[in-house]
What does this fold into?
Amino acid sequence: MSVLTDPHTLVTTTAVLSDASRSTAGILLLALVTVETGGMYMLKIVRGGADVTPFQEKFARAGHAHAGVLLLLALICQILADSTTQTGALNWLSRSGVAASALLMPGGFFFSSMGAGRTQPNRLIALVFAGAALLAISLISLGIGLLTA
It folds into this structure.
């Protein structure tokens, strides 16, 4: 990254991630490959190559979209979490809560719609709500952590 400090001087800086952010970001980037693989299955569904109900197609789309968006948000949270002074549970929520919700919410969409001919979700839909609650708590934690740092 280059920063212009005055019209005649160009200073080059590099963002430094904490060890926790660097390792978590590496894991999240590898996890995005699974979302890409899921995209291949989505193509199969929309091209009519998979025998699914309209409900199952909608839930597959929702699960796939939530997985990708939440993993990207979790990557952003790594950088932001390094800017807080949080420790313990609050640090975990700010740094890893969104990543955990990226497992829970899509998992809820996928697992609650599995089964031949299913037209409504099973009890595993609770994972979507658990993931949503964790996402909200994690974002609140990170937001407050940034505002109070």
The two ends are 24 Å apart (CA to CA). The longest helix spans residues 19-46. The mean pLDDT is 93. The beta strands are 2-6, 9-12.
